[in-house]
Structures are given as structure tokens and as C-alpha cells.
Write a structure and sequence with these properties.
five-stranded antiparallel β-sheet, elongated, seven-stranded mixed β-sheet, 19% strand, Beta-lactamase, 2 domains, 23 helices, alpha+beta, Penicillin-binding protein 2a (Domain 2)
């Protein structure tokens, strides 16, 4: 018997279909409502955001590097400029295989290891769609070779730039410093948006100290791009604001004369010249020097290592960071304190037998002249640089008064000059010795201080600032290098001098007593600088000094036994001076390393000869080198480490 097939329920199926259709319709209506609500939200509430995002798909803001400000000397001589060059730039985001592209470029345009290393550094601190310099200073042949092959290198282009250049090279490197590639740490310290198009930043000197003024403000181009991201046209431009042009107090002519005089003498050292009436720095020389242009586009690692390891230390700014014994240049300050404290009078005199002894001490402190100077008052003590007189004066004053007068003239502290590299020097005290050396202060330490040996140290800048204070009869100014500045489209604005704490004496006539002795150093036949400086048409007040490099058993003027010493064990010679005496216009400090030997008459020849050339140029006197003639000389015995300035000075004589 066959099985019966059930008949379908059409009514039930129609009802099921209708039910499902209704549910689908409701869902569709809800989705449409949600879509309309979302579109309304995006169009009304989020309109500004998505309009901006859509514009970014076809508009781009391209930063424009501002032109760096120029640097001039006080007479308008250009010291730092911007020269046009071609650079090879890479846009990493537009390159599929960057290592291969760099390798292919190197077959056309030579790329050094320094170029690649600098590019890799910049790659880490820039966005991938930025134009990153690969090589600077392309030659015309290199530019031509690249253009012939440019179709092979999408994302690589030749760009015209302005590059920093120092037309006078080494002559101003320690004053100006230099600019070089900005690194990651420096990017974190500056306004990143303002440096978005900048590859360089000031590293040392004026370039670093006045970076904010010299850099300027970044500009922008609003560029239209096509679908591939290539620029089609510039729609709008916000022009960059160039950096300020600045004028320095430096006289480039005086700087040249000073540097040439020290270089021609064949010695390392430093020279600082200051205008006493304002504190303006007229010259600041450190020899040897270096060419700052080599640092701008990136110095080769081998060349940089050679500069660092050179025994002459050309990268070392001796004018600001060289720490030297004051030697006999300390004596005028002791004389000022002796008079002002009432410890001595201008007429007070002693008999100098050629040595000095402290009571209850067996040690003998020798004068530089073995048989002494006989009867010596304050004027003659300064003029002849009589050690014995100042040994006696130091024992009467004590170390606290000596420290006080030195600090009143700015020693032991930064001068406040507008440069970052300055060191404060050392004004030693019993507390300082106990803290630094771990031992007590002895009476003999005070006696050593009288002739500028022992622990006292100063920079050439401090020596110049100190003697400028004497020249000004106690009126002191903070030294500065910025003469004035000029903003784009604005008038020139000159910097004003800043007064420092003055040195006031109980009797102003004491200034003249000390300055009279310093004037006799040059004017009197008995003075330590008379014969070697020569007769000049202007008046000069000065003080010579010598710092020995090692301890000697005798003060005998016969130095034949020293003739075989290596150059780095020869004495340092120092000079502080100002001119004219009555109305000072210039004050100078000179350090000539390893330029003297023993107490011979020629010991101060280098510094006196250098000073004569500087002052003759400044006062417009034709230079005629004086003939060396044997004369007396002072000799402050200080042992220091060889090869230039040190951070520690060892005394020969101890209490």
C-alpha cells in the first residue's frame, strides 16, 4: 500500500513570509535612520574636522627656513655670512628602497662616510616626508651629473640653500664659535616648530649664545599636491622672518694685529683687550685656533680626532677657559689692599737683602734678584717687581685680606661675559684648601700667594677685566661682546654698558700711588718693561709676570744650565697694561705660554713686544720693533703641568 503525501499549508507559509518581510523592513528602516543620523552628525557636528582632513589630502604645509642673521665687527666688517650652495636632499617617504638608492647615488656623486653618518642621524630626527640633506656643497659637475640621472631617483632632488660661512676663518673661531648640524638633544631644547626647516644650530661662542636672535622665525608654504603627493602649485605663503644682524664690540683690525703678533712670536697663548670705560671687548685671541668652516657641513671624524689630540689644543679657548697663575700681575692688587687697609703707606719701605723669612720658620723665600733691591718703597716695589717687599706685605695682610681684594676685582668668579664657556678661576682660601686638598693652610702658602704662585688661578679675561678696573680707578663694567643688533626692517639698536660692583677705597689718591708704580714699569729705566717696550708717544701703565713650569734650585741669573730644557718646560710670561695712563682707552692682558726661561733680561720680550704692536696699532703709531736690551726682570716661581694651562698649580715653597 503506497504512502500518502501531505498537502502544503499555503496560508501558513504566506503568514510566515509576511512576518519575515515585516521584520526585514523594520531592520532596514532602522538602518536607514541610523545612516541618516550618522550622516547628519558628520555633516553638522564634525564638519570642521573632516573638512580639514580632506584638505590635508591635497594641501600640505611646507616649512621655509629663515635666513640666519649676519655678524659684523664694530666697524661693519663681515665676520659671519650666508653663502648660496647646492645640496642633495632625500625624501625618504618617496623612496621604496633607501639603502639601494643611496648606493646608486654614490656611483654618480661621491658620498663620504661622514655624509652617510650625518644623513642617518638626521633621518632619526625628521619626519619621513621631510627633505633631508644628504650632501652639501655640490659642485657644478655633480649637479649636472645628477640632473642627467634624476629620472632614476624619485624622491631625490637638488636644492639651493644658504650655508653659514666665516670669511676670516680661524681668526675669530673662539669668539664666533660655529654652527653645525642640529642633533636630537638640541631639538628637544628648542621650539621644534620653529626649527622644522632648520638643519643647523649654533654650537659655540656668539653663534650659540645669541642663537635665538640669529635664527629667525620659520615660514610656511601652503602647497597643492596631486594624487601621488607631488606638489602642483603654491596656494599661500607665510614668509619667514630673518634673524637679527648683530654687531660685535670686536675690532677686527686689532684682533688681526694681536693674533699675528702672538703667532709670529711662535707661542701658544691668549690676548684680551677691553675698553675700560664701557667693558666692551675689543679683541679676544686664543692661539692656536681652528677653521670653523670645517664644522658647518660636517667635519670628518679623522680630522676632528686630530684637532682633539693635538698637543697645541686648538679647540681650547684659552681666553675664557685657560687657568693660569697670576704670577707678579697680582702685586698691584696687594698694593691696593695694603694702602686701603692702612697696612702700609706709599712711603713705607723695607730693606731687601734678596730673601725673606717668616718668624719661627727656617724656610727662605728668595727674591728674583739674588742680591736684592736694597731699600724699596711701594712705588719701587711695583716698578722693579720686588718679591721681598710683597712677601712682607702678604705676611702683614694675611690671606683673608688678599682674597677679599682679589674677589672685589672679580677674580674667582665668572665675569658675566656673553659667552657660555667661561671658567671662574680660583681664589684660594684656607677653607678652599681644606675642602679641595684635604690639608691645612700654612703661613708659607700666604707668602707664595704674594708673587702669584701657589693655588691662585685666573683666566686671561679676568686679568683684563681686573686691570681695566685699576685703569678706571675702581669703576668696573661687565665685559660684553654685543655692540648692537638690527631686526629686519628696524633701526639699529645699540647695547648699553652694565656697571659691576665698584672697588671703593678710603682714599682715592691710593689709585694714583699704585698706577704711578705701574707706569714706571714702562717709563723708568729701572722698570721691568722699560728697555723691551721702548719709548712710545703714549703713556702706559703695566705689570709683568713670569710663571715657572718647574722648581729650580737657584735664582742665579745664569741660565746656561737651563738651555737644554724642552719648550714645554719654559716659563709662561704674563703682562697686564692700560693706556693712556690718565685717560685709559684700552686695557690688555697677554699670556704667552712657554715663552721665557729663567730671570734673563729677555724673559718678558714676547709679551712686551706683543703689547707694543697692539697699542701702536690702536693709537695709530707706525710699528717699529724695539731692540732687545738686557734689563731687570721679575720671576714668580710657579710649577704647573706642561703643555699650556692647567686646573691645578703646585707651589714650590710651602710653609
Amino acid at each position: 500500500m503506497s504512502k500518502r503525501i501531505p498537502i502544503k499549508n499555503h496560508l501558513q507559509e504566506i503568514h510566515l513570509i509576511n512576518q519575515r518581510s515585516l521584520i526585514a523592513l523594520v531592520i532596514m528602516i532602522l538602518l536607514v535612520i541610523m545612516l541618516i543620523a550618522r550622516l547628519g552628525f558628520l555633516q553638522l557636528t564634525r564638519h570642521d574636522l573632516y573638512t580639514t582632513l580632506s584638505k590635508k589630502n591635497w594641501l600640505d604645509l611646507v616649512p621655509i627656513e629663515p635666513t640666519r642673521g649676519l655678524i659684523y665687527d664694530r666697524h661693519g666688517v663681515l665676520l659671519a655670512e650666508n653663502i648660496p650652495i647646492f645640496s642633495l636632499d632625500v625624501i625618504p617617504n618617496s623612496i621604496d628602497n633607501l639603502p639601494k638608492t643611496l648606493a646608486d647615488i654614490a656611483k654618480i656623486i661621491p658620498l663620504s662616510d661622514t655624509d652617510i653618518a650625518q644623513f642617518q642621524k638626521e633621518l632619526k630626527q625628521h619626519r619621513r616626508f621631510d627633505e633631508i640633506p644628504l650632501k652639501f656643497r655640490l659642485s657644478e659637475n655633480e649637479v649636472a651629473r645628477f640632473y642627467e640621472n634624476q629620472y632614476r631617483f624619485p624622491g631625490v632632488l637638488v636644492k639651493a640653500r644658504l650655508l653659514r660661512h666665516y670669511p676670516l676663518g680661524e681668526r675669530f673661531s673662539h669668539v664666533l664659535g660655529y654652527v653645525s648640524r642640529i642633533n636630537i638633544d638640541e631639538v628637544k631644547e628648542v621650539d621644534a616648530s620653529n626649527y622644522s626647516a632648520t638643519n643647523y644650530i649654533g654650537k659655540l661662542g656668539i653663534e650659540q649664545f645669541y642663537e635665538d636672535d640669529l635664527h629667525g622665525t620659520v615660514g610656511y608654504e601652503q602647497a597643492e599636491n596631486d594624487s601621488s603627493g607631488e606638489m602642483v602649485r603654491v596656494l599661500n605663503e607665510i614668509k619667514p622672518i630673518p634673524g637679527k644682524n648683530i654687531y660685535l664690540t670686536i675690532d677686527s683690525g686689532l684682533q688681526k694685529v694681536a693674533e699675528d703678533a702672538l703667532t709670529q712670536a711662535g707661542f701658544r697663548g691668549a690676548i684680551v683687550a677691553i675698553q675700560p670705560s664701557t667693558g666692551q671687548v675689543l679683541a679676544m685671541v686664543s692661539v692656536p685656533s681652528f677653521d670653523p668652516n670645517t664644522f658647518v657641513s660636517g667635519i670628518d671624524a679623522k680630522d676632528f680626532q686630530a684637532l682633539q689630540l693635538s698637543p697645541d689644543r686648538p679647540l681650547y679657548n684659552r681666553a675664557l677657559r685657560g687657568l693660569y697663575p697670576l704670577a707678579s700681575t697680582i702685586k698691584p692688587y696687594l698694593a691696593i689692599e695694603g694702602l686701603d687697609s692702612g697696612t702700609v703707606t706709599p712711603e713705607y719701605s723695607i730693606f731687601d737683602p734678596g730673601f725673606f723669612k717668616l718668624k719661627n720658620y727656617s724656610h727662605i723665600f728668595h727674591d728674583w734678584r739674588p742680591h736684592g733691591h736694597g731699600t724699596v718703597n711701594l712705588n719701587r716695589a711695583i716698578m722693579c717687581s720686588c718679591d721681598t717687599y710683597f712677601y712682607n706685605l702678604a705676611s702683614l695682610l694675611g690671606i683673608n685680606r688678599i682674597d677679599d681684594i682679589l674677589m672685589r676685582f672679580g677674580f674667582g668668579d665668572e665675569t658675566g661675559i656673553d659667552l657660555y664657556e667661561e671658567l671662574p678661576g680660583v681664589v684660594a682660601s684656607p677653607e678652599w684648601k681644606r675642602k679641595v686638598k684635604g690639608v691645612s693652610w700654612y703661613p708659607g702658602d700666604t707668602i707664595n700667594t704674594a708673587i702669584g704662585q701657589g693655588f691662585m688661578q685666573a683666566t686671561p679675561l679676568q686679568l683684563a677685566v681686573g686691570v681695566a678696573g685699576i685703569a678706571n680707578r675702581g669703576v668696573r663694567y661687565t665685559p660684553y661682546l654685543l655692540l648692537g643688533e638690527q631686526k629686519p626692517g628696524k633701526p639699529y639698536a645699540q647695547e648699553k654698558p652694565t656697571l659691576a660692583d665698584p672697588v671703593k677705597l678710603n682714599d682715592p689718591s691710593y689709585w694714583e700711588d699704585v698706577i704711578h708704580g705701574m707706569a714706571n714699569v714702562i717709563a723708568s729705566p729701572e722698570g721691568t718693561g722699560f728697555h723691551l717696550f721702548g719709548k712710545a708717544p703714549y703713556t702706559v701703565a703695566a705689570k709683568t709676570g713670569t710663571a715657572q713650569m718647574f722648581s729650580r734650585k737657584s735664582n742665579d741669573q745664569d741660565i746656561s744650565h737651563l738651555a737644554g730644557l724642552p719648550q714645554n718646560l719654559h716659563d709662561h710670561t704674563l703682562l697686564i697694561a692700560f693706556a693712556p695712563v690718565d685717560h685709559p682707552q684700552i686695557a690688555i692682558a697677554i699670556i704667552a705660554e712657554n715663552s721665557g726661561l729663567g730671570v734673563s733680561s729677555e724673559s718678558h720680550g714676547p709679551t712686551l713686544g706683543i703689547a707694543r704692536k697692539i697699542l701702536d696699532y690702536y693709537f695709530g703709531v707706525p710699528q717699529q720693533p724695539p731692540k732687545p736690551t738686557p734689563t731687570s726682570n721679575d720671576n714668580s716661581n710657579t710649577a704647573t703641568k706642561p703643555n699650556g694651562p692647567t686646573t691645578e698649580t703646585k707651589t714650590q715653597r710651602t710653609g
